[in-house]
Write a structure and sequence with these properties.
The termini are far apart. The strands form four sheets. This protein has a five-stranded antiparallel β-sheet with strand order 2-1-5-4-3, with helices on both faces. A five-stranded antiparallel β-sheet has the order 8-7-6-10-9. By secondary structure, the protein is α/β, with parallel strands linked by helices. The protein is elongated, with a radius of gyration of 32 Å. It folds into five domains: 199 residues, Beta-Lactamase, CATH 3.30.450.40; 92 residues, no CATH class; 139 residues, Rossmann fold (3-Layer(aba) Sandwich); 64 residues, Helicase, Ruva Protein, domain 3 (Orthogonal Bundle); 39 residues. Helix 11 packs across helix 12, helix 19 crosses helix 20 and helix 20 crosses helix 21. Bound molecules: adenosine-5'-triphosphate. Adenosine-5'-triphosphate binds next to helix 12, helix 16 and helix 18. It comes from Tritonibacter litoralis. Keywords: ATP-binding, DNA-binding, Nucleotide-binding, Transcription, Transcription regulation, Two-component regulatory system. This is GAF domain-containing protein. GO terms for molecular function: ATP binding; sequence-specific DNA binding.
């Protein structure tokens, strides 16, 4: 009787009459008859591939089985005792992994809910796995939704799993041999299976992205770090090179995702990613979306490659966050290599160089390469003992303490810092300073607690990768079509850049704001700003303002102490008696 009704319903669907079934079910019935020539009255047994074929399918899906295993195990634990069976099939519909209750193994085998069964639509008719492969969407195929007579007691809920390039690669199916009549009884199963599929995609993306940035996103701060909703894998320029399926929702409908730069769709660029790392409070890691909404972001930095232990092993090129700081300048290359080795130690580092040359940026990169949990920055100008303590109390455990412009530290703060470092051996100080270490006026007890070794950064005018840096900063600010004319480039390369990278950033910002067209030409560039206070005329005023304290005057002018002494001698200035 039931069979006759089922056949009649299929006939009505073929005639185009509405029957109240989900549209994907009616469409699948139509394919079963019109495309695969199936007969709903035939009670075909389950299609099981041969032992050798199963081996081949499992071998092909090996990496997916491994990525999905722990997800499947935890899902199976969640439904334990409720007679559910879990199948992982490959993109052809062949079951390559299976979790079911041993008590019902014979029944499950008989129904095809077992390893090696082929649930592709053209063989099994309308079924959960088959419909999921065709629609690439999660589906529930409940009881008489099935086309074939043999399966109308089953309820199957299936979710697709995509690889990081957006290709359907597997299906996760949760099935019941017998289920309540209402299809809505499977809503919870649908939730479980789609969440499990999302986690498998996430695990797979993370496993293949060790050398790239990953940005994970969630609408809830509580789940951001533990169970994010979507993730994108990014290359060094911020272009998407992989994604989990749910990340599609973040991009404009239908537009390709691979190759898009994230700053075209979100309010963050690749350079903002360090601010979205785990050492920052979750609530502060907000990413604005193109549609006006916002999500919480968690950026995971590329791992730097570990050097082989053998001294004979060829040197691997520098990788990870440090590699992005220079583009072929030999001096910077050596400096970054040293920084990378030191990043794995607890040695306190003093990073010196002119203002704006990237000392803080380097300190941050060293911290990230070393993968220490906590990160605190304090500005030494105006730093009080209380301020220092309060900043460091924010973290417990291994922490990097970035001391910006350590030459500006007061004596009181210097003493406090020395005792703090004695109390907290888990704090690693990284200090930046615009003076030569020899001119640094710090109590020697503190100096040696801060300076295990010096990393001296070159000024921008001495860097051979200036052209690379100009392009890098330009690309971050403007679309690919905007470029520099050769004469504009030559002009920028010939400047002296007293403000270093900070000045370069400002020049590019001003240029882009004021110029129209897609080519930046010489007249579009702002003239270099020579600071009036840097001339010899103002030296006396500066010295007077600093009570003739050479170190202070040097700080004010952004030069080192010996330069001040030289200028004083040259200009014949005499301190007041
Ligand atoms: N390698 C780099 N690539 C692109 N931008 C950089 C790089 N290094 C630094 N910058 C940018 O240049 C500016 C100055 O960098 P940073 O604050 O690290 O300099 P600093 O030497 O610590 O300056 P100061 O001594 O004045 O505190 C920042 O806006 C930073 O983002």
């Amino acid at each position: 009787m039931q069979t006759r009704q089922h056949v009649e319903e299929i006939e009505r669907v073929l005639d185009g009459a509405p029957t109240g079934r989900d549209t994907f079910v009616s469409a699948s019935w139509r394919r079963c008859v019109e495309l695969y020539g199936m007969d709903p009255l035939r009670s075909d047994p389950a299609h099981i591939v041969t032992e050798t074929e199963l081996k081949a399918h499992r071998k092909q899906a090996e990496w997916m089985i491994a990525a999905a295993r722990s997800g499947l195990q935890s899902l199976f634990r969640q439904v334990a005792g409720q007679n559910y069976v879990l199948l992982l099939t490959d993109a052809q519909g062949v079951c390559v992994d299976f979790f079911g209750d041993d008590l019902f193994l014979d029944d499950l085998r008989g129904a095809g809910l077992y390893l090696g069964s082929n649930w592709s639509e053209e063989l099994a008719g309308t079924c959960g796995v088959g419909a999921c492969i065709v629609t690439e969407e999660p589906v529930t195929v409940h009881q008489s939704d099935h086309f074939g007579n043999a399966h109308t007691t089953l309820s199957c809920t299936a979710a697709p799993i995509f690889d990081s390039l957006g290709k359907l690669t597997a299906v996760l199916d949760i099935s019941l041999l017998r289920s309540p009549a209402a299809k809505s009884s499977q809503n919870l199963a649908m939730n479980l299976v789609t969440n499990a599929a999302r986690r498998v995609e996430m695990a797979n993306l993370m496993a293949e992205s060790r050398r790239d940035w990953v940005l994970r996103l969630s609408s809830s701060p509580e789940f951001l770090d533990v169970d994010p909703e979507a993730a994108v894998r990014l290359d060094g320029s911020g272009k998407v090179i992989g994604y989990t399926r749910d990340a599609r929702k973040l991009f404009p409908d239908g537009a390709p995702i691979l190759g898009r730069r994230i700053d075209e769709v979100m309010g963050v660029s690749v350079d903002d990613l360090p601010d979205l790392m785990r050492n920052r409070p979750t609530e502060e890691r907000i990413v604005e979306m193109g549609d006006g909404g916002a999500l919480f972001g968690h950026a995971i930095a590329p791992e730097s490659p570990r050097r082989a232990l053998s001294p004979m092993a060829p040197q691997k090129p520098l990788g990870g966050v440090l590699a992005g700081l220079a583009g072929g300048d030999p001096g910077m290359g050596r400096l970054l290599e040293k920084a990378e080795k030191l990043s794995r130690t607890q040695v306190p580092l003093l990073i010196t160089g002119e203002t704006g040359c990237g000392k803080c940026r380097l300190a941050r990169a060293i911290h990230m390469a070393g993968q220490t949990a906590g990160f605190v920055t304090v500005n030494c100008a105006g730093l009080t003992s209380d301020g220092l303590r309060a900043a460091c109390d924010k973290t417990t455990g291994a922490t990097t303490l970035l001391l910006r412009r350590v030459e500006n530290m007061t004596e009181e703060a210097a003493h406090s810092l020395a005792s703090l470092l004695d109390e907290r051996s888990d704090i690693r100080p990284l200090s930046t300073c615009c003076l030569d270490p020899a001119d640094l006026d710090l109590p020697s007890s503190l100096f040696h607690r801060l300076c295990g070794t010096v990393l001296a950064m070159p000024p921008l005018r001495q860097r051979q990768d200036l052209s690379w840096l100009i392009d890098r900063l330009l690309r971050r600010r403007a679309p690919d079509e905007i470029r520099l004319s050769p004469s504009a480039r030559v002009n920028l390369l010939g400047r002296s850049w007293p403000g270093n990278l900070r000045e370069l950033e400002h020049v590019l910002d001003v240029t882009l704001a004021l110029s129209d067209g897609s080519v930046i030409d010489l007249p579009d560039l702002p003239a270099p700003i020579e600071s009036a206070t840097r001339g010899e005329e103002s030296l006396e005023e500066t010295l007077e303002a600093c009570d003739w304290n050479m170190s202070q005057a040097a700080r004010r002018l952004g030069v080192n102490r010996s330069t001040i002494l030289r200028r004083i001698r040259k200009s014949g200035l005499k301190p007041p008696s």
